[in-house]
Specification:
There is one protein chain. By secondary structure, the chain is α/β, with parallel strands linked by helices. The protein has one domain: Class I glutamine amidotransferase (GATase) domain (Rossmann fold). It has a 7-stranded mixed β-sheet, sandwiched between helices. A two-stranded antiparallel sheet has the order 3-4. A two-stranded parallel sheet has the order 8-9. The longest helix has 14 residues. It starts with 6 loop residues before the first strand and ends in an 8-residue tail after the last helix.
């Protein structure tokens, strides 16, 4: 099975962790998904190591109803900037309200915390987010990949192979009734 009929958002801004954007993005393209880069930036985003991508659509113009899944790359600066943008947070919340798969790696769970969608969930993240995750009502575990009803999380770039596999699996499964805000 491929993702050829799936429309996926990868949401990021300047300072994303290059590998955490590149590998999921490339995997989605390999799986024939239609991938849309969404950002608070107007035209280009730059990773912390210099990788650049053209922005397809500004966060203010996104309707989550038009997409099947959301991918949130990490890096410290990326989610820290995104979580201050009301539209970026709205998008995350809408994906949960619509029961759609969401994948977040490394520091990206800051977006999940800001969107207030973690209560009662089990996730993983970069270890320094543990207290933030637990304060948001989630159970934090130290595993390479955790899947909780359509929410896929991983800790760091070393986890990318497992993260990408589970990301694709959850997107193929589609909506999850328990994936709620």
């Amino acid at each position: 099975m491929s993702l050829e009929d799936k429309r996926i958002i990868v949401m990021a801004t300047d300072g994303f962790e290059d590998s955490e954007f590149n590998e999921p993005f490339q995997r989605l393209q390999t799986e024939q998904a239609s991938v849309t880069i969404v950002s608070t930036n107007e035209s280009v985003i730059t990773g912390k190591d210099g990788t650049t991508y053209d922005v397809d659509i500004h966060v203010s113009e996104v309707d989550a109803e038009d997409y099947d899944a959301l991918v949130l790359p990490g890096g410290v600066a990326n989610p820290d900037k995104l979580r201050t943008d009301e539209d970026a947070v709205r998008i995350v919340r809408e994906f949960f309200e619509q029961h759609k798969p969401v994948s977040a790696i490394c520091h990206a769970p800051w977006m999940l915390i800001e969107a207030d969608v973690l209560d009662g969930r089990t996730i993983t993240s970069w270890p320094s987010l543990r207290t933030d995750v637990e304060n948001a009502g989630a159970i934090w575990v130290d595993k390479e990949v955790v899947v909780d009803e359509g929410l896929t999380t991983s800790r760091n770039p070393d986890d990318l192979p497992a993260f990408c596999d589970k990301m694709v699996e959850e997107i193929l499964e589609g909506k999850h009734a328990e994936q709620t805000a």
